[in-house]
Amino acid sequence: MKLVGQLTPPGDKSISHRLGLLSLLAQGRCEVGGFSPSADCASTLAAVAALGGGVERVGERVILSGAAGRLRPGQTIDCGNSGTTMRFLMGLLAGAGGRFVLDGDESLRGRPMERVAEPLRRMGARVECAAGGRPPVIIQGGGLRGGQFDLPVASAQLKSALLLAGLQADGPTTVNEPAASRDHTERLLAQWGAQIRRDGLSCTVWPGLLRLPAQIWTPADASAAAFFCCGAAILPGSRLVAQGVLLNENRLGWLRVLERMGGCVDVRRQGDDPEPWGDIGVEFSPELRAVEVGAAEIAAIIDEAPILALTASQCHGVSVFRQVGELRVKESDRLAAIIGQLGALGADLRAEGDDLIVRGPTPLRLPDAPLKSFGDHRIAMVLRVAGLLAGGWPRIDDEACMAISHPAFNDDLRRLAGMAS
Ligand code: S3P
């Protein structure tokens, strides 16, 4: 099986979340083109509307009317499956007057929120998590003090939560990261009129309101593109172009790793607004070699680790992904899921402490039993690509979860693989 043709992935999920959520602290009205059709971003838009933001969906366009920081308190907000929605809202609501409760589905209720709650408490907010620092989260905000924060993990969600709280504090707030994570929040804050200073891994924001631009568009999702591009690199005969894709370097860690493996990749930058974007061409790459991916690179490949692990299973040699412990606290325990489910297809993967070790190349075969996604979209999607490599379309126990990030994933994959839907 091969992947041949062109694909425009859905609008970027990370940027779409931020457009919606930051509009709560902004004045003005903005027409967004190419907004992500993901279930996660639908959770964000529902939350924004519940809190008093204006949200109008017109096909792929979303019209946002800023709430200028005047949020409706006394509510329970359902964040669905979306960690981004919850963690951003924790920071955002910590600065608003009143009491809010943030809750989510079973997967989200298992994810760590204390890492966000603790620095927000230091800023002066009252934040309570349920047992084990998990959701639901109760926030009684207002009266925040700015400060300096050294983050224990490279997490764009944690960084962003503190920057959004900082916008509503009494003075500057500085966030220092241990390694670079995606920087869409900082870029939007600067574009939307915040006073912000960036210096390497450090970012300082001063209090103030944002101003929405009249129009903005969302480049196609770099993480969604990764599943198809890596799939094309390992499926003999493939030749694929992902069009209009976000080319922010913090989101292209997977492409750099694929290049290091010897992947045949061609990137054509087409524009820079609101962030760099362009086309990514990938061809079947017959001589892929094992690589070592260092701890400092992990934040930039965190969502693509599953598809890179599959790609590594087709490389010659032993690949090592250092310090990928964060994978254990994603929508599922992705480290266990990758090892167990790609292992069920015949790949040779194991964990050594927090490192992931993949030995290749291994031929894959379709298993008799259904594969398990653990309700995690990125696990379901990597199993689909792995299935093509094994020559078929295996049963997966839950693939509805793909809608969390890419509702048309199966249709896009079938079309590019030349399969009837
Ligand atoms: C995201 C940040 C990452 C990523 C998630 C989206 C974002 O999470 O895994 O899918 O949009 O900021 P962490 O910040 O927890 O690493």
UniProtKB/TrEMBL annotation:
It is found in: Cytoplasm. Pathway: Metabolic intermediate biosynthesis; chorismate biosynthesis; chorismate from D-erythrose 4-phosphate and phosphoenolpyruvate: step 6/7. It holds the Pfam family EPSP_synthase. It comes from the Bacteria. Residues 2-413 form the Enolpyruvate transferase domain. Phosphoenolpyruvate binds at residues 13, 83, 111, 157, 334, 378. It is an enzyme of class 2 (transferase). Its main location: cytoplasm. Keywords: Amino-acid biosynthesis, Aromatic amino acid biosynthesis, Cytoplasm, Transferase. 3-phosphoshikimate binds at residues 13-14, 18, 155, 157, 303, 330. Coiled coil: none annotated. The active site is at residue 303. GO terms for biological process: amino acid biosynthetic process; aromatic amino acid family biosynthetic process; chorismate biosynthetic process. Its EC number is 2.5.1.19. GO terms for cellular component: cytoplasm. PANTHER family: AROM/DEHYDROQUINATE SYNTHASE, PENTAFUNCTIONAL AROM POLYPEPTIDE. Belongs to the EPSP synthase family. Catalyzes the transfer of the enolpyruvyl moiety of phosphoenolpyruvate (PEP) to the 5-hydroxyl of shikimate-3-phosphate (S3P) to produce enolpyruvyl shikimate-3-phosphate and inorganic phosphate. Monomer. This is 3-phosphoshikimate 1-carboxyvinyltransferase. It comes from Desulfarculus baarsii (strain ATCC 33931 / DSM 2075 / LMG 7858 / VKM B-1802 / 2st14).
